[in-house]
Amino acid sequence: MDNSIINAVGALSVIGVLAAIILYFVAQKFKVIEDPKIDDVDEALPGANCGGCGYAGCRAFAEGLVKAKTMDGFYCPVGGNDLMKSLAPILGVEAPEKAPQIAVLRCNGSIKNSIPKFEYDGDMTCSFTTNLTAGTGGCQFGCLGGGECVDACDFDAMYMDPETNLPVVKVNCVACGACVEACPRDILELRNRGPKEKRIFVACVNSEKGPLSKQNCTVSCIGCKACVKVCNFDAIDVNNFLAYINYEACTLCRKCVEVCPTDAIHEVNFKPRKPKGDKKIEKEIKLVVT
Amino acid sequence: MNCLYDNPPSTKNITLVMKLKTFRIGGIHPPEQKLSAAAAIQNAQLPEVAVVPLSQHLGAPAKVQVKRGEMVKVGTLLAKGEAFISANIHSPVSGKVAKIEPRVDSSGFRRESVVIEVQGDEWEAKINNTDEILKDIKLDSQEIIHRIHDCGIVGLGGATFPSHVKYMIPEGRSVEYLIINGVECEPYITSDDQLMLEKGEEMMVGVRIMMKALNVEKALIGIENNKPKAIEHLRKIANQYQGISVEPLKIKYPQGGEKQLIDALLKRQIPTGKLPSDVGCVVNNVGTAYAIYEAVQKNKPLVERIVTVTGKTVGKPSNFKVRLGTPISSLLPLANCDMENTGKVINGGPMMGKALVALDSPVTKGTSAVLLMKKEESKRVPIQNCIRCGKCMTVCPMGLEPYLLTIIARQGNNERCEVERIMDCIECGSCVYTCPSGRPLLDHIRLGKANTSLLIRTRGRK
Asked: A101-268: which CATH architecture?
C-alpha cells in the first residue's frame, strides 16, 4: 500500500522534471527577444488607445516608435510635447516639437443664425440624415446637430449646446481626430491651439455662391475676399466662395475679423475690443497732438 | 394589431374570383384610403415659371443643351442623357430659358435645374398633339427603343429607371413575358387607376409597342383587386389583342415592387443581385406604357404626367395631368387643400414617399402623388425598445431580418450587412409600418445600404 503512493509520487516527479527540462530548452530555442524599450515607452504613454497617433492603440504606437528609432512622424496628441520629451531619453533621440492642436467646429449655423424651415422628427444620426436632407436650416454643408462627433469623443471633450444645437469643443480636447473622422460633412478640423489658446478661423464650410448661402444662414462665408485683401501675411485663401485661414501663416492680427461682412470669421479667447467709435476719436486726438 | 385592421380588406371583390394570385413572402395590408378613386383626370394650369431639374431619373444627370435667353417650345431637348443609365429631358413648357442654376429639390439639396419663363403654349412641330388613337405600329423593334431613348421615357411607377435600358436585353438572355404593373399597391394613390380607365385603349397600344420592341408574345397586366372597374375595362380591350391578359391580384403591399409582381404572376423569384431579365421578364408601369405609346405613335416626349393630390386635409382629392416643372405648391389650391391643418406634404405615397422640404419644389418624372397629412398623423410615434417580436421579419417581402440589419448597420458592420443581404431591401417600409415599438428600422437600413454599396464599389475598384 505504502509503495504505491511512493511509486506514484516518484513517477510524477520524474515526469515533472523531464517536462521542465524540455520546456526549458524549447523556451530557449523559441525565445522572443523584445526590446525592453517598448515596455518602457508603453508605460509612459497615456493608455487611452484612442488611435489619434494613427496606430491601433498605445502598444502598437510604442512598437512602431522603438522600431523606427526616430521620433519624426510620431506624435501622441494626448500626451503632447511633454510626453514626447519624456520619451526622448528612453530612445536616445531628440523629440520634435509640435504645436498642440484642438478640434474646431467650422460652422455657426445655430438655430438663431440658420432658422429651421421645417421640423425633422426622423432618426437623428448625422451620417444618415446627410443623405436624406440638406438640414432643417437649408444649408447642405452645415452642421446637422445630430451629435455623432460627441458620441465619437472618448475624452468627454465635447457636448451639444441645446441652445444653438451645435457641438461645443471643450478645452480638454486632445486633438485625437475621432470627431473629425465621425463628421460626415467634414465640418470639424484640427487646428493649432495658438498662443494662450487664441485662435482665428472661418466658421463656415459653405462653398455656394454668396447669395445662395445667405438664403439659409446669416453668418455664412460669401466668398467676398475682403479678408484676403486686408491680410498682410497671405494667410487666407478663397476657393469655391469659401475662405480658409492657414493657421501656420496667420499672425492673429484680427484685421480679417473686423472686415468680414457676415461675421463668419471667429476669434477665440481674445480680449474684447474697445468699441470702434472710441478708437477713431483716439486717433483723431493723437493726430491733433502730433 | 388595431392599426392593421382599421379598414378591413374589402371582401366583396374577392368572392368574385376563385383564388387570387399574390407574392409568397411577407406583405402587409395598410388601409387603402383611395380618396381620389373616382376623380377624373383634369388638366392642371400651366405654371408661370417652370423649374426643370437635370436629374429626374435614376443614374447620371443629363447634360444641358440650351443656353440662357434661348426660346424653347414644348418638347425641345433641354438636356441630353449621355451616360448609359441616364435619360433625355425635354422642355415641358414653351417660353424663355431664364436661368440655369441650382434650385432646391424635394430633398432640400440644390440641384442644377433649367428655369423657364412660360410664354404661351407652343409645341414642337414634329409632335402630334391630338387625341386621336393611332393603332398601327410602323416602327420596328430597334427604332422603338431609339424613340424611347430620344423621348426620355423613364419608369413612371416611382423609381424613374430609364426605360430604354430595360429594353436592351444583353445577348444570351431571352425574355418570355412583358409584365405591366397596374398594381398601385400604395395607399391613397390613384393616378394609374384613372389612367387605365380613361386611356385604356392608348395604353394597350403602348403594351403592343413594348411587346414588339422586346419581341415577346405574352404580356401580363397585373392589377390589384381593389380596382374592379379598371380590370373589367382593360379585359374588354385586351380581348381585341392577342397575347395580352389581365390578371387580378390579391390586395397586398408591396405587390407593385418588380420582384414581388413577378413572383405573384409567374411564381418566379429573382436571385440576389439579378435582374428581371434573368428570369425572362421585363416589368414596366402602366404609366410608362402610356408614355411609350405617346412617344412612339405621336413623337411626344415625356413632358407631363398624372399626379394624384390627396390626403385627409384635401377638400377635393383629384388626379391632375401636370406638366413637369410645375411647382407642387400651385397644385394645392386646385384641390382645395386645407394647409392650416396639414402637418406634412409627401412627394409620393405614404409608404415610400419622401416628405417635401420646400413646397415650391417642382413636379418631376417620379412624382406620382402629392399626399397631405394631418398634423396629428404626421408625427412619428415615440421610439421604444425592440421587443424581438419578429413582426418585421414576417412582413418583409424580401425575406430579410430588418431588426438584425438595423443593429449591424448602426454598428457599421458593413461586411455582415452584405452577408445578411441588405442590398436586397426594396425600402418598402413594411417593417416600419408593422413595428409595435415604432422603431426607425428603414432609416438605419438605408444608412447600411449606402455604406454597404460604397464598400462593394470600392472593392470593385481594387
From this structure: 2-Layer Sandwich (3.30)
